[in-house]
Specification:
alpha+beta, Phosphorylase Kinase, domain 1, 39% helix, globular, binds adenosine-5'-diphosphate
């Protein structure tokens, strides 16, 4: 499988370009589990399996951004990601965009699966970030997406300012229709006093950016593979916090991560504030059921602690 990163005008063109004109799609099976796109396992007439995501409602930039994210994680060299074939837009038929990736064959987890993943993630968080943004700064080469929503990655010299301007502010502005005047004031107060709660990291880290358990899958090497990233350079704590948002990983993961990475004191007090970003994003994407969690966090952090 060649790692060409091109944009094609149809799925058929892409298959022909990679596998030759006599190879066709023999079978297409729907895969469930994602929130946003339609996912399929493709079997080609030569027996190759591929993974495809498609979406008629997104711009070309959507999957192009996912490609850049997977490339960044691959470049960090610590955790496996699927090889990228290409992204494309089906101009003749559906008009939808698609992404073609290596199909990750699922395997049995190795016995120290969580420890190994924790060490790999810590290594990714330690990796050099100056290939993406200037050393010591936060952001990414391009904006990308968190779920369906655009994620701003304008480079900042301060992590706290980046998190304020590119993470909380845009989501709070979009969610303002859910807030009454008191809540809006509390949100403003929270933004003003962010530097009394957050800390600058000892070094910037490449983050997966959307690290919930559904985006970590076991490959046939028995190890964790990362999918569906929303990468940027930030504080590693933000990735760690996200792992704890929807159910969390087992204690073996956290024990091993703490062994492999220096966690700055007070992380537990900052965790929910990082996750406010994801909860606001869910509020903006999926509606009011996320409002009570959002309100609880804003109310808590807008008061002096
Ligand atoms: P979405 O963009 O809609 O969130 P995901 O990237 O989460 O979609 O993919 C949907 C599902 O497809 C995942 O839950 C996962 O189980 C499976 N999946 C994702 N990438 C691959 C892959 N490269 N190979 C095999 N299965 C995959």
């Amino acid at each position: 499988m060649v790692g060409l990163k091109q944009h094609f005008d149809s799925l058929e063109d892409a298959i022909v370009s990679f596998f030759g004109s006599n190879v066709k799609i023999a079978r297409m099976e729907r895969i469930f589990g994602g929130d946003i796109n339609e996912a399929y396992g493709l079997t080609l007439t030569d027996g190759t399996n591929l993974f495809m995501k498609s979406n008629t409602g997104v711009k070309e930039s959507f999957f192009a951004a996912e490609v850049k994210g997977l490339q960044a994680i691959e470049a960090a060299g610590a955790v496996r990601t699927p090889r990228i074939l290409c992204s494309g837009t089906d101009r003749n038929k559906t008009g939808g965009s698609f992404l073609l990736l290596e199909f990750i064959r699922k395997g049995e987890r190795i016995s120290d699966y969580w420890e190994t993943f924790a060490h790999q993630l810590a290594a990714m968080h330690r990796a050099e970030t100056s290939g993406f943004v200037a050393g010591g700064t936060y952001g990414f080469t391009d904006d990308n997406y968190i779920g369906m929503r655009c994620q701003c990655n304008i480079v900042h010299n301060s992590w706290i300012h980046f998190f304020r301007d590119c993470r909380l502010k845009p989501q709070l502005e979009s969610a303002s229709g859910y807030f009454d005047t008191t809540e809006l004031k509390r949100a403003d107060k929270l933004l003003e006093r962010l530097d009394t709660v957050l800390v600058e990291p000892e070094q910037p880290s490449l983050l997966h950016g959307d690290l919930w358990s559904g985006n970590v899958i076991t490959g046939n090497d028995g190890k964790a593979w990362l999918i569906d990233p929303a990468v940027y350079v930030g504080h590693a704590e933000a990735d760690l916090a996200m792992t704890e948002l929807f159910g969390g990983f087992p204690p073996a993961f956290y024990d091993a991560y703490k062994e492999a990475a220096e966690i700055q004191p007070g992380y537990a007090k900052r965790r929910d504030l990082y996750n406010l970003y994801h909860l606001l994003n869910h509020l903006n994407m999926f509606g009011r059921s996320y409002f009570p969690s959002v309100k609880r966090i804003i109310d808590y952090y807008s008061e002096a602690k």
